[in-house]
Known about the structure:
Blueprint: H1 8-17, H2 39-54, E1 62-64, E2 67-69, E3 79-82, H3 120-129, E4 134-140, H4 141-145, H5 166-179, E5 183-190, H6 211-224, E6 231-235, H7 258-273, E7 278-282, E8 287-288, E9 296-297, E10 317-322, H8 350-366, E11 376-381, H9 391-406, E12 410-413, E13 417-421, E14 424-425, E15 431-433, E16 439-441, H10 450-457, E17 472-475, E18 482-483, H11 486-489, E19 499-502, E20 508-513, E21 519-522, E22 536-539, E23 554-557, E24 562-570, E25 573-581, E26 587-595, E27 617-619, E28 624-631, E29 643-649
Parallel strand pairs: 3-4, 3-12, 4-5, 5-6, 6-7, 7-10, 10-11, 11-12, 13-15, 18-19
Antiparallel strand pairs: 1-2, 8-9, 13-14, 15-16, 17-21, 19-24, 20-21, 20-27, 22-25, 23-28, 24-25, 26-29, 28-29
Helix pairs in contact: 2-10, 6-7, 9-10
Amino acid sequence: MVTVRGSFVGAALTAVLLLAPLTPVPAAAAPRDSAPGSAADSEAATTATAVKAAADWSAPLSTRGRWIVDADGDRFKLRSGNWHGASGTWNGSGSVDEDANHHAGENSGRTPLGLDRAPMAEIIAGFQEIGINSVRLPFSNEMVHDGVPVKDDAVAANPSLRGLTPLQVYDAVVRELTAAGLAVILNNHTNTTRWCCGVDGNERWNASRSAADWESDWLFMARRYKDNKRVVGADLYNEVRRNIWDDPNWGLGDDHDWFAASQRVGDRILTEANQDLLIIVEGINWTGIPIDGFAHERPTLEPVRRLSHTLVDSGKLVYSAHFYDYTGPNHSGATGTGETTDPRYRDFSPAELIAVLNRQAFFVTEEQDQHFTAPVWISEFGVGGREETGAKPRAWFENFVDQLIRTDADFAYWPLVGWHENRRGNGWALLHWDSAGHRMGVNDGDDWRAAAWNRLVRASGRTGQVAPVTEWSMLSPDHGDFVASRRMRALPDWDSGARKAVCPDGQRLLGLGHTGNRGLCSDVTAGALWAPAGGHEVVRDERHVTPDWASGYTKLQCPAGQFLTGYSVRGSAVSAALCAAAPAGRLGTAGRTVWFDRGDNRGSAPKGGDFASGHYKGQCATDEYAAGIAYTGRVGSARTPDALYCRKLA
Length: 650
């Protein structure tokens, strides 16, 4: 590769094209003797018994605050692993038929890895044995449309799969996993059926396909498994990252805006395809040029603090993040060209690692009553097994497992299945099969990860009933409509040409930003207020104003018995207020004016978080509802919100 000295473009091309893959690269394993019948076998048996009992759970899954729960309201912890292969293992050069041209020499044949070496039932029994209750199952968009049958060699140990297309094999795998009681999370891993994750044409959801085609594929997959209730989640896209020229972003409104794309397809899945699925949104994996002196970072979930998703169905959003020892918050994972002097995660002390992890992801679960509070699923982490002798990677794995246990986090190990020959090969997997079908597992007695793994899957944590929690939701009509209400989505456009924002059904508007168009919704104190048979009114004038609670200002006030559930804007200016009818006796009439045109006015201990970062904000108290918005059109004003009229709940 040619680098143009002093040229930004030349440096960018060199660094980006030589980014290390952001999923594990194995080293050769040193042969060791296994120890069947060891203490690890006893641990495995105990774990398998626990998993069998844990298979008795009720679908679908949803969320309550930071917890995932089943249909009975009991906590369901995602103790997961990744069964990769259907999304591709080909490295992108050379013949696809040659094993050497596949990641780690492991040719999946466009199917979940290992079907050539072991019967599916044996593989799934292995999953249960090591203590998982759920599987993240990657697929590619190309796989969805691939009509070429898989080769017989790819499914040699499963002859019933011969002659099937990759999608039909995927169907069979989903069917058998769920029949065994395991939950399945569909994961759109790549656009094309090849190994992820460098500069490979799979950097974004729309890198090699249009956004419209991506959305269409998701609707197809969500509908395809709608009747299988143990298919519980849609993991929207894997490791969104920079391509050669452009970064993804979180909220800019262009075709690289991962926040907007994931918000849109998540709502479409829930409203058009399968309302039972968890919608899983991974943070941004990489932006910038990995060269010292240039801006570069792994944002992960940090942007969520400033801009979070609000889906049409509260209780369906899960955030996710990936962590490996050889990457870092500002380190791409590259070695040689493209490597920077930034620390990798393995370089941090235990205390430093905790601080970094909390900043990048775990704050989403740890900080309660925020607009961003949600479960976080660490949907990829892993490390080399028998062949990994490095002190730092080993220490990182132990420390990371400690963090997962400490935070009672949901997790998914990468990967579950690998190949071995004479106990050598890709040591990252927890279960390996050789070409003769002999299995090598994490609990055989010679894998240093066994103690930490079993500590993780057997760790005590929250179980049983999780009580319903207060919901806090952000509205962000920054670049278009942000209607989180199913009821309003089903009705005609109530303010054509304006950008509209509406709280999810069951929540009421409590806060507004002076500029920036952001809003805050909640069901705090009152629960759902909108009467099932109640109507709504779009207010554009002062006909309902009483008393004059903002003299000299234009006021949009809800009529008696109604509360603010939404608003619309044109540019930055208020256009209309959306009011919803509450059941009789739920709303009081005593009110106060909350001004926020010259500073924040949210009370002494506001909940919900900073929903309009960098802007003045006003917020009603938790025992109030918003009944009106005031603004002014005088010279120097942009008709942005200046005050809220907050009234007491009855």
